[in-house]
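Model: Ready when you are.
Researcher: Fold this.
Model:
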Amino acid sequence: MNDPRFRDRPRPAAPPPEDGERLQKVMADAGVASRRDCELAIRAGRVRVNGRRVTSLPSLVEPGRDLIELDGVVIDTRRRAVIPSRRNLYLMLNKPRGVISTARDPEGRPNVVAMVGRAVPPGERVYPVGRLDADSTGLVLLTNDGELAHRLAHPRHGVAKEYRVTVQGQLTPEALARLSKGLYLADANDPSRGAKRARPERLRVLHHKRDRSRGDLALVSVTLREGQNREIRRLFARVGVKVRRLERVALGPLQLGGLPSGRHRALRAPEVEALKESVGLCEPAAAPRPGR
C-alpha cells in the first residue's frame, strides 16, 4: 500500500492465544510440583516452551503437543497426576568438582540432583537453588520448597554467598583495591546488553604463600550478594591472577561446615528457620526474656 496515511502507522500487536491451558496448570497436572511452585519456576526463567524461555504469565500451551522443559528436563504433559500432600525437603550437598548444578546434561556428566537421589522419596523431586559451575565445589542447597528457593535466588533479597578462593599470581594491594571497588563485566550470555558492575561485598586475604617456582598462592574469602556468570573467576582474571580453586562455604546463614566432599545431609530445623528468616518468610524468633 502506497497511501502515505498508512505507511508509518504501527502494526497492532498480535492478539494473545485464545486456546490451550495455562502453563503452570499443565506442569502441576504432570506431577512436577504445585501450581504455585510451578509459577515461581516460570518467573525465575527455569522453564522453556518449544525451546523459548518463558518468564511471564499467563502463558497458554497445548499438553502433549508443545515441548515443555524445566531446567533442561522434558516434562511428559500427556499424563495427569494427582499431587499428594507432601513435606518440604531441604538437602545440603558438598558438590565435588566436575558435577554440574542442573538436572540434565547433554554430555552425560553427573549432576547434583542425582547425587542426592537416595534422600528423595519416590515421586518427589528437588531442585538446586542457584548454580555452581562444574569446576567449583562446595555448598549446594536442594529443595522442593519453591517459595524459599525463589527468594534465595532472587537478587532483590540479596542473600550473601561466601566463597573460599585459591588464586595464583601476585595479589598486590592495588589489585585488591580494584577488586574491592568493583569492575564492569560484560554479560557472558548476551554481550549486547553491555557491561554490568561486579563488586564483592567483602574481600579478605586469609593466607598468602610466596613460591618463586610455582608462583604466589593466596587463599581469599569472597562474599557476594548478587552474582554474575563465573563472576569471581572473571574478576580475578581482570587483575592478572588465576583462580585455582573455588569453594562455596556459606549461603546466607547456612554453613557448609565439615560436610565431606560428595556427601549430603538434611538440614536441621533451626537451619531451615534461619534460611526462611533471612528472606522474610517468617518472623525472627523472639529473644528470651531475662529472668527477674
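Researcher: Now this one.
Model:
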Amino acid sequence: MAEPVSLSRRMVRAARAVMKDQLPAEVIAKVKIGLLDFLSCAFEARDLPWGCQAIRMASAASGTATVIGTPVHSSPGEAAFANATLGHGLVREDMHTGAVSHLGVVIFPTLLALAQQQKASGRDFILGAVCGYEIGAAVGRAIMDQEMVRRFRPTGITGPLAGAIAGSRLLGLDEDGTISALGFAANATGGLNEWPYCGGDEMFFHPGFAARSAVTAVELAMVGARASESALDGRAGLFAGLGKTDCISRVAPFSGGPFEILSVYYKPAPACNYAQTACQAALDLATQDGFRSSDIESIVVEASAAAVGYPGCDYAGPFERILQAKMSIQYCVAATLARGAIEESNYHLLDDPEIVRLAGITKVEADAAFTAAYPGAQGSEVIVNFGERVARSRMDDLIPATPEQIRERFRSAAGANWHGIETMVEELEEQEDMSVLSGGLAA
C-alpha cells in the first residue's frame, strides 16, 4: 500500500497547480487593492515609534532590498521585517476573519523583498500572493478557535506558512524545494497573545518576525537546505505541537470554492478587527442631530463572544499605550462618540477626559445572535443611555473600506510619488520585473 501523502506535499501540489489564466478578474483586482492598502499603511506608519525602531533595525544590515518610504536598503529578511512592521503599524491592515489573521502584511513584504533578489514578473507576484492567502487561510480556518487565539497570535502561525508558499511560487521553486520552505516556515511560527494585558509592543512586530522567517525559509530552500516533509502533520510537527492533530483533515486549500483572498476585508478604522463594527455604530450615533457626548450616562456595546473574549478587547482602562486603546472596544467606541470621527488621531488622546470618562462607563457584552453569525458576519450594537432617553445603533456586519477609500488613503500617505506607484500596481500583471516596483518604493 502506498504511503499517505503528507499535508505539506498536498498543499504544495495544490498551490503549484494554480495558473494565472485560472484566476478570476476579481481575484487579480483583490491582489492589487490589497497591495495598495498595505503600502498606504506602511507609508503612514514610518514616523510611529515601532516603525522607526524597525527601520533602525533594518538600516544596520546591508543589502539591496528597499525599506518602504525610506532611503534605507537592507538584506531581504531585514527589509521584510521592517516593511511588515510598517504595514501593521497602524493596526489598519487586511483581515481574514475565518483565519483570524492579517496575511497581507506578511505576504506582500515577503514578495517585495524576494523580487529584488531574483527577477520575477507581476504575474508571478499575483500567483504568489493568491497562493499565500490560500494556504495561510486554510491553516487558520482549521486551528484558530477561541482558545487558540487567547494564547497565540494567529498571524504569527499562519503568516510564515503563507509567506513561504508565496515566496516559493514567486521564485519558481520546485515541489521539493517548496515543501522545504514550508517546513522551515513551520519551524519558525510563533507569537504569543500576552501583550494586550500589559500594553507591550510585541503585536506590531509579529508580522515582521513572520515575514523575516518566510524570506529565510525560501532562501534556505533555494540554496538546497531540506526541511522535514512532515513538519506540519508529523508526530512532533506543528499541529502536534499546538495540540491540533485532530484539525489536520480540515485543512483544505484550493477546495473548489471562492479563492480565500476574496474573504479578506480592509479595515475602515485603525484599530482591532473586533472593534470595527462598534466604531461604525458609534459614529452613526455621534453624527445624529442633537447628539452630545457629555450627556451620556452609560454605554453598552453588544458583540460576538469572539470579540468580547479576544485579549485586550474588553478593557476599560487605564490607557497608557496606544496599542491598549486600539485593542479596546471601550476606548474605540468612546473616542468615536467623543470626537464624532473614526481616525488615527483618536488613538493619540489617551488622557482626554471625555474619552476616559466614556470608556469607563462602557460595558461590553456578548450577544447570542452576533455570536452565531460570526465569522460570516461581525455584528455589533451600541446602546447609549442619556438618562431620560436611550439611543441605539445596530449593525449586522461591518462596512469594509472600499477600493476608492483605499486609493485615497494610499495617495495621501505615499506623497508625490503616488501616481507612478499606483500605475505600476494597477498594471501589475504587465510588469516584467517586479524589482522595479520594489525599488520605486524608496524615498
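Researcher: Key takeaway?
Model: Residues 297 and 386 are 5 Å apart (CA to CA).
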